[in-house]
Amino acid sequence: MGQVRFRSLGGEGRVRHTIEFLKGKKMTLTNESRNELFRHCIATLVYRASKILRDAPENFAAFHNDAKSRTPVEILTHMGDLMDWALSMAKGKSVWHESIPLDWDREVARFYDSVKQLDMYVASGAMIACPLEKLFQGPVADALTHTGQLAMLRRIAGVPIRGENYYVADILPGRVGPEQSKPRKEFD
């Protein structure tokens, strides 16, 4: 593999960063490393979602920001559906199912189970029938967006979570259940 050189280019008061691959070499990932990167992405989703799901007050599940918005339990149900859809696509069959929300605790458990099933399938080495990039840009990125919505709803409901430097968080592929590492650097 060629050397990687980082170069900053200024222009009109802006700075752009470029990466040059010397000697015409391209950076490629093996299927195994791509799978591990994808598994890290879903572990990141779970780490962030766990922070919001943990210690949510009983009345949070039904909180309404306005009459037309989804409740937190409806958003969480959708997140579980997204993970089920991702697994179906990974297995070669795109199946979308819109679930009827269960109570909060059952939806929390369902979300973790759905992500665990997806993670186990990717980790198994089985053939993945669609591009991992599409799984990330579709269902996983959508679930990350909804994680942010839940965080904002907690703040609006008067039960905010603390901010965190996620760059230093202890996030590992395969750690996709409710038991997550303690935050390393939180702030208010």
Uncertain ranges: 1-21
Helix-and-strand structural type: mainly alpha
Intertermini distance: 43 Å
What would the average pLDDT be, to the nearest integer? 89
Instruction: Please tell me what the overall shape is.
Output: globular
Instruction: Kindly estimate the percentage of residues that lie in beta strands according to DSSP.
Output: 5-15%
Number of folding domains? Answer: 1
CATH class: Mainly Alpha
Instruction: Report the CATH topology name.
Output: Four Helix Bundle (Hemerythrin (Met), subunit A)
Task: Output the number of helix runs.
Answer: 4
Largest sheet, spatial ordering of strands: 1-2
Number of strands: 4
CATH architecture: Up-down Bundle
Radius of gyration: 19 Å
Secondary-structure element pattern, one letter each: EEHHHHEE
Taking the sheet with the most strands, its summary is: 2 strands, antiparallel
Share in helix = 40-55%
Question: How would you explain this protein's 3D organization?
Answer:
There is one protein chain. The chain is mainly α. It has one domain: Four Helix Bundle (Hemerythrin (Met), subunit A) (Up-down Bundle), CATH 1.20.120. 46% of the residues lie in helices and 11% in strands. The chain has helices spanning 31-53, 72-90, 104-123, 132-156, and strands at 4-11, 14-21, 163-164, 186-187. The strands form two sheets. A two-stranded antiparallel ribbon has the order 1-2. It has a two-stranded antiparallel ribbon with strand order 3-4. A hairpin with a 2-residue loop joins strand 1 (4-11) and strand 2 (14-21). The chain is globular and about 50 Å long. It starts with a strand and ends with a strand.
